[in-house]
Amino acid sequence: MHIGIDFGTSYTAAATFVDGELTHVTFGDAKQFRTAVFFPEVVPDPTKRRAADTAAATVESFEDALFGDEAVAAYLEYGDGNLIESPKSMLGFRMDAQVRRVIVHIATYVLEHIRLAASRQLGENVRTAVIGRPVHFRSSMGEKGSEQAVEIIREAAAVAGFDSVSFLEEPAAAAMHYHKRLSHRQTALIVDIGGGTTDVAFAELGGDELPRIVRTWGLAKGGTDLDVNLSMRAFMPELGNNVTRVPVHHFVEAASVHNLPKQREFRRQDYRFVDEPWRSRLQALQQPGATTRLNQTAERSKIALSSRDRTEADLGFLDPGLGVSIVRDDMNEAAEPFVERMQRLLAEVREEWPSVPASIFLTGGTSRSPIVKEAVRRSFPDIPMVEGDPSLGVVSGLAVAATERDATSA
Predict the structure, then answer these.
(1) CA atoms lying within 13 Å on the CB side of residue 299
(2) What Cα–Cα distance (Å) separates residue 139 from each residue in 35, 93, 110, 135?
(3) Which residues, including other chains, have CB under 8 Å from residue 22's CB and lie 6 or more apart?
(4) What is the pTM of this model?
(5) Of the N and C termini of the chain, which has fewer Cβ atoms inside 10 Å?
């Protein structure tokens, strides 16, 4: 049986069709899990342990790793070990051989976690998958970075027990999901705004014909950029940004929890000669788990400001009694760099599409943001906009693609 896997920057999900019904793989009680892995010690080499070959087998990797919110909670509770958040965001960057091996190991654990959960739920040993990929991965090497990212995922999937995997661009997957909702043939523009990337596809969808992807565009920015920007605007001044002589890039490194090299660089800085109260707060932020707590606070604040004009953030873990009041304007200004870049991409799309689409289909976790949603509306004011499932639209389309692969190979 083929499954579809949305290996996301922020959240990961999997799905397939069983007896014609869309079936989401569940992780505990949820249809997705935060893309985070915790190892109590070093990241173990998954090739040096016994892999599980049946859905009923006990898997040794679960003794080594925790996933999702459980991973974050364990890291915050124990204060040591290794928490890797958003490993997908690292796949396209230049790395030496040792770092690459570690990244492959991390991706292997994530993919094996998915495969074994699917095998248990579906009652058969899942060995094949269609995996979503952005049009352009976050990368320091251009298109070579995207090629490297696909190679790493493919290598990790093989170690995780998949006999074969194929890849489908995420906006194309979202298009397949939308295709199922359309009784008549039409053109549509798919706008998928995720945690790490923003992807767009022009497609011919609906009716009895197969969906046809005409053109895709991509931007290697997404919701995690909003979190970093909000942290820089609302929280980092309380730690001395633009007040002390500490370089700005230190604060960017602290806010970038999805970037392991930046996190390591921040933790090795020496703040002994910074004036109080900044010194103590920065040193507290260097403690294990503190940057993760700060990022979670930024994420919660971002979500709260989607429906409220003001929210309060507790930073007492950095300095007892420290808190920050954040207003909607803070969120608007934090989102502005991303929104401007996204609108430039959408303007480029509008200049290059082959015809005016009948509808805009909006999906992806970051599409929940009213600021982002309104920016898309402003880019296409005369075209009806249809909102898809922000969390599960892409994986639902990947399940469609996986089912077609099953039918082809049968």
Answers:
(1) 18
(2) 19, 5, 21, 12
(3) 15, 396, 399
(4) 0.89
(5) C
Q: What is the average pLDDT across 242-252?
A: 96
For 312-361, the pLDDT digits (tens) are 999 999 999 999 999 999 999 999 999 999 999 999 999 999 999 999 99
107: its two tokens: 């991706």
% of the chain surpassing 70 pLDDT: 95
Q: How confident is the model at residue 408 (pLDDT cuts 50, 70, 90)?
A: low
The Cα–Cα gap between 408 and 234 comes to: 52
* 92: exposed, middle or buried (Cβ count in 10 Å: 0-12, 13-18, 19+): buried
Which burial class, exposed, middle or buried, applies to 358 when counting CB atoms under 10 A from its CB (0-12, 13-18, 19+)?
middle
Q: Give the CA distances from residue 369 to residues 134, 171, 304, 357, 390, in Å, rounded to whole numbers and listed in that order.
A: 20, 19, 10, 23, 10
Q: State the pLDDT at residue 13.
A: 97
Contact 215, 354 (CB under 8 A): yes
Which residue in 122, 131, 195, 121 sits closest to 160, CA to CA? 131
Q: Which are the contacts of 48, defined by CB distance < 8 A and separation ≥ 6? A: none
- Length of the chain, please? 410
Identify whether the C-beta of residue 34 lies closer than 8 Å to the C-beta of residue 62. no
The candidate with the shortest Cα–Cα distance to 351, out of 378, 372, 379, 376, is 379
Q: Do 237 and 278 form a contact (C-beta atoms < 8 A)?
A: no
Please give the single-letter amino acid code of residue 301: S
> Are the C-beta atoms of residues 148 and 91 closer than 8 Å to each other?
yes
Per the listing, tokens 């070093």 go with 42
Hey, what amino acid is at 366? T
